[in-house]
Amino acid sequence: MGRVNVPGYVPKAGEFSAISINFVGPNYFKTIGTALASGRLFTDQDGLVNKVAIVNEKAARHYWPGQNPIGKRIITGFRDLMDCEVVGVVKDVKTESLRTEAQPTVYVPSTLNSMGHVTLHVRVTGDPAPVISALRDEIRSLDPNVQPRDITTMAEQIDRTLALDRLLALLTALFGFLAVALASMGLYGVMALAVTARTREIGIRMALGADRSHVLFQVMRESLLLTALGIGLGVPAALWASRVIGGQLYGLRATDPATYIMLALVLVAVALCAAWIPARRAADVDPMVALRYE
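RE: above sequence
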């Protein structure tokens, strides 16, 4: 972070006049994959004969709302303030977390960097391990006193930022699985008890000449109607409750149709199994035995 002063911009009350500053080379944006929104990118001469800067869209909207920032001045720096001309605007990039919004950022040519340390970004194809080893050897051959550290890939860096989110997602999935298992066990118990309680009725029907398949079909139909009623009442309740956690999800909607359909199919399958097993057992019982069932 560094101080920032934009001529013509009046900070709001309590606003902290700081901005994220990155010292980058001419090929940084191409390597990272950040698209140019307007203006131009850095050249090899920038920072040597002139002081220029590139801002992201968030900074452009913040400091020059409704204006074209190209050609504007921005005074920024760490210890030594630099009066730079804005020559380009790039797309916003999330640097802290995938959940947090991009922050106002200004990019300055690396030739103006007086901090004494740099970060090297390399775009590779395929396995990065051989490239990392070759880069380490090349840096040591150029200057044995330079010791590269914290060498990592972008995928590994993203994994680090998502470690806590993935742990919470795993725990949530585990609790969700347990909830579905308990619901399935409860549904199976209720449906099985309901069908078992009708053993006498089934025996009477079969004693009066009812076909076994007809009895099974009737029991299954009634079970499906009860299950459909439960799903019909549960889905609206779940949609209403999903508004509470909607803002805590990333890359997934709280009203994801595939999730609701999958859970509904699971409950229907459990209900069918819970009704079919005891119904078939009752239909196989001799009618005279069923009539004596208490």
